Amino acid sequence: MAILERELKVTEENTAAEQVMTFESGNEMAAMAAAQINYHIMGYFPITPSTEVAQYLDQMKARGEHDIKLIAADGEHGSAGICYGAAATGARVFNATSANGFLYMIEQLPVQSGTRFPMVINLVTRAVSGPLDIRGDHSDLYFALNTGWVILTAKTPQAVYDMNIMALKIAEHSKVRLPVIVAYDGFFTSHQKRKVEYFKDRKVVQDFVGECPTGYHFARDPKKPVTIGAHMNGEDLTNNHFQQSQAMYAAGDVFQEIAAEYEKLSGRKYPVLDLYKMDDADVALFLLNSAAESAKDVVDKLRSQGIKAGVISPNIIRPFPAEAIKDALKNVKALLVGERADSYGAHGPNLTHEVKSAIQEDKDNKTIVLSRVFGLGGKDFYADDAENFFSMAIDAMKKGYAEKPFDYYGHVPGDPNNVLKPVITPQHGDVFNSGLIKVTKDEETNKLKVKMPPLRALTSKPKRLASGHGACPGCGIFGGLELFFKGIEGDVVVLFQTGCAYVTTTAYPHTSHKQTMMHNLFQNGAATLSGTLEAFLELKRRGEVNVSDDATFVMITGDGGMDIGMGSAIGTALRNHKLIILEYDNEGYMNTGSQMSYSTPIGNMTSTTNVGKTQKGKAFHHKDTPQIMASTNIPYVFTGTEAFPQDLVKKAAKAQWYAQNVGTVYGKILITCPLNWKSEDRYGNTIMEAAVNCNFFPLYEVEEGVTNITYNPEDKKKKIHLSEWLKYMGKTKHLLKDENKAILFDFEQEIEKRWLRLKAKHENPFL
Ligand SMILES: Cc1ncc(C[n+]2csc(CCOP(=O)(O)OP(=O)(O)O)c2C)c(N)n1
Ligand code: SF4
């Protein structure tokens, strides 16, 4: 509550512009500021907890509330590239990301700051993997410290809005011309709704940020050619970086100027350091972002007990406000710097050392500095924790030294007696061998022949995944995967890229996997499994593992993983490692809340392709991943679905043969996601069957380069119109309305074109 009251102390009398009071989250306010500024371009890729920013902007766009061109990238590296290209062209550019997404784009960030193109990224802070944890800490933000970007820190949703507006003006200031990060805490600030004010008229915001600069070395006018990014020798690079460093320090002064101007407009004050009762403080905490708010209440309590406590929290950390910190700590006896990240092995995280080096320049300063790593992976920071921090500082003040200058806070030794027993017993070997599937090569046709028993004979084969995973009711993932595994004999080693299948089967310390399972980051699974496979084969070759051991290596990914991980998958395919890449296609990024993937069909409604008066769902056609993978000339590519079980199991058996004997296999299985398709669970199979029968999802294989349609709805007299499939799903029902008939027609044409090409390939082995 105290936070709210403080936030609401807006000095109405000196505000120049009309504001509206509302109740919103940090992500909503970031989107609101971006929409009011009306950036030219946003390049983005979804990742929790920042995804909502793009989602809100997409909803607003569908309602016609701004003109920002929202570009859904194929990964964060791509999103950062889109942003850089747009910024270098002189557009106003915006992005939002978190955690590994931020790390995946990080290579691009020094390029942008080193060539001095302004833009704004919202970094909604979250723990960096591994292990994976989607909640908030500052481990991603700490990777930003050396990127050369100005970094503003926003403690509240109100600050998120205000800083987003100031950030662009700072970025574009002639003395700065650097990109800016606005960092706020994942979930604490991004998702919690607070009372906030925003300018009623977006023109106020647009007048404040001013005209988009045009005079710089932009690639905006092809009639005025420029060269951007010429390579440099050491001397030039030193000069370049010196200028960049000067610009960064200038950003500190510019921040103060712009904050003063903004205060006049809004009534809200953003000093370099937010100092809470620091005038006469003996003990203090230095905390970034939301934790500082919790600590302020404790300061009030301690003061009522006669302890002179205070809190320091910066509003800007790049440039680091060293002078202001030196001033604030002049008379402080003990300070505890609490940080939600570590700089492993450095005897304290980054800001501890920056604070220490700031006061070290003051020869009269006697402040004892303690450093604590806390709140990792979103571990809450309550008033009690702030009190504990203060008691450590008070103890140091009394003793005149810190007993433990650096430590972690909140870790527990753990009780070995409490080790949780695995709920499933891993299985391997003959249990997974039915002995009933026989795959042989017909030397005459060069094709595989599969002898398979009726499916019911394979039901005795155990599932590879134990039941009890956390998928939604009616989810098609596990039905699809298990059916595929019915066709695989013997042991498997699987790698799951991030997505619903991974998240719902492995919540530490539990696992649903009965066989070896590895997870790796979303974009690198195929490369990782290549390494695992080759290491296994090499160990075997040297006799360091049992030569009779064998397994089939399978990489499981969603369709989203085949966007961001496409490069890795193609690399694996071109090297032709003996493994299977199996994609379950649920037509979107479901684990992060149903954003569009490149496999989402045209016109589909997702959380980033909304339907409204100015936008009608996804704007472009679905990716033809099987054809892309087939063009790498791997020995076997197939499509399948649970609705045609015999067909899928047979293809799984072939996949295993090719992966064991020849090289890489790629397969795509269509599965249902009732939650995000907005379909009824009971229609799962019907929907998939319809997807095949309308030719949206043809069942075929490409065996050693030769295409074979394995089920032809026309021959079976089962061909249906596209609308017969779309009618089952809430995400596509709008396509059946008269007003959207042009999109439906376009969709039909595309399907027909792809089908005709496929038939031609089926008929001609040389195509
Ligand atoms: C580098 C990186 N960017 C973004 C994410 C966030 N993320 C995790 S899963 C996911 C979507 C996965 O989509 P898909 O592969 O289709 O699997 P599904 O969730 O649909 O099962 C995203 C965007 C991440 N983990 N890492
Ligand atoms: S969101 Fe969709 S894909 Fe993910 S678990 Fe739920 S039903 Fe399955």
Short description:
The protein is an alpha/beta fold.
The share of residues in helices is 25-40%
- Overall mean pLDDT stands at 95
- Tell me the number of strands: 27
Ligand kinds: thiamine diphosphate, iron/sulfur cluster
- Strand order, sheet with most strands: 19-18-20-21-25-24-26-27
**Largest sheet data:** 8 strands, mixed
- Secondary-structure-derived class: alpha/beta
Strand portion:
15-25%
Q: Detail the poorly predicted runs.
A: 1-12
Q: What does this molecule look like?
A:
This protein is α/β, with parallel strands linked by helices. The strands form six sheets. It has an eight-stranded mixed β-sheet, with helices on both faces. A seven-stranded mixed β-sheet has the order 3-2-4-5-7-6-12, with helices on both faces. A six-stranded mixed β-sheet has the order 9-11-10-13-14-15, with helices on both faces. The protein is globular, with a radius of gyration of 29 Å. Iron/sulfur cluster binds at residues 471-472, 475, 477, 500, 504, 586, 590-591, 673-676.
